[in-house]
Amino acid sequence: MLSRAAVDRAEHLRSDTDALRAGWGDALLIRVNPRGQFRVDDRELVLEPATSLGAEPASGTVFLGLRGDRHVWAVRVPAMTGELGDLRMLGHRLDEASAGLVTTAVALLNWHDHAGFSAIDGAPTESTMSGWSRISTSTGHEEFPRTDPAVICLVHDGGDRVLLARQPSWPPRMFSVLAGFVEAGESLETCVEREIQEEVGVDVTDIRYLGSQPWPFPRSVMLGFAAVGDPAAALRFADGEIAEAHWFTRDQVRAALDAGDWASSTRESSDAELLLPGSISIARVMLESWAKAD
Question: What is the value of pTM for the model shown?
Answer without folding.
Answer: 0.90
